[in-house]
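# nightly structure sweep
# worker-07 picked up a monomer target from the shared queue
# config: single-sequence mode, recycle default, output format = structure tokens
# input follows
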Amino acid sequence: MTITDSRARWLALIVLCLGDLMIVLDTTIVNVALPSIRQDLGFSETSLAWVVNAYLLTFGGFLLLGGRLGDLFGHRRLFLLGIALFTAASLACGLAGSQEFLVGARAIQGLGGAVVAVVALSLIMTLFTEPAERAKAMGVIGFVAAGGGSIGVLLGGVLTDVLDWHWIFLVNLPVGAVVFALCLALLPGGRGQAAAGRLDVAGAVTVTTALLLAVYAIVNGNETGWTSGRTIGLLAAAAVLLALFLGIEARARSPLVPLGLFRLRNLATANVVGVLWAGAMFAWFFLSALYLQLVLGYSPLQVGLAFLPANLIMAAFSLGLSAKLVMRFGLRAPLAIGLLLSAVGLVLFARAPVDGSFAVDVLPSMILLGFGAGMAFNPVLLAAMSDVQESDAGLASGIVNTSFMMGGALGLAILASLAASRTDHQLESGDGALVALNGGYHVAFVVGAVFAVVAAVVGGALLRTDASAAAHEEEHPTRIPAAAEAP
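# output follows
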């Protein structure tokens, strides 16, 4: 089945975005409700972190495998499976009456979310083959990826304040059911095109285990200590498994990840940029929300509303502005300028005082970050996906999503550690609690801005310059044209 009607393709895109939005929302919507969950189910401060970590663990661990399974066995089939799994797990979370049940359901949610996140991007590459349409479609999914986190803060505040924490999960049920039904009608079918359905089991086991260990070590690094034996041991085990995985892939007849993919310059560059950019974005989503809530005393609903200007700006870019910039200027300029604008927005947050006002100390940063994210996300996604064959689209999506996931988790862990260290230092120096807390956030915002600047330099220097890099190469999809290789 193929979709030739333009209207049907855009309807399919909306459905894919709804599915992806559920997944993106779940990374932040839960944070607002954590105090209510803790009180209701009796979590300790330590065990409460597993409501978030269980999701992150399986989400990060199965991105690569989920993308490859989509290539092998059909993208629509895997997308439907992911939606069904995520929706069923959401029901379990909403009905959870014990700590163990909620954490287990969150782990299953993460597994379903990983499949949906990577396969959605693959399906977009299949649906939209014309450069201008593809750039616009990627801008829309980029808005979902960039703006969904801050929308989750707003929605989480509304649902928790008006109803209770159970509804942050139960709201997924009608959405998931609608997405599943519409996908059956609108998405192209197919059995997959890679390696006649053969799966590299040894590669799948080693890389998934390596990612699970790495995510586990990172999300618990601040609690257990970065120099503790457990953290170092887990990271070392992950590194050994990753090395073993590379050895397996070099010899496998049908590798899970053909190592030649990493010779594609735009894909390799997009992954480096993705790691750095995700660290900067997590500085924005989480640390600015903490500043607003803990320093300025905003309610969860007010925090969500504070993100609204940035969301509106990103929405405007996703509805056409970002695609026009890419088609006019190529990938490098919009990416670099967007990341630099984001860096300036983070630097402005780094000077926000304890008694800051929204108009002077919050709104300018939100506007700059909205422009920056709106400009930068589309080029990153296009660069990651533009050079691969359709049969490897799910794998490429899994790679770039893993980069974002690992970069975000590691970046947030680093920034939280730096913020806590600075806060402790200022408390020891005699500063008040709020001043010390804010001082810690300032350091983290500056480092987040550095991440964004480095990402801008890497992307601006290494991405291909021509606007045609936004398009899938029709005749030689895995080969970079010689004319495009010069910077």
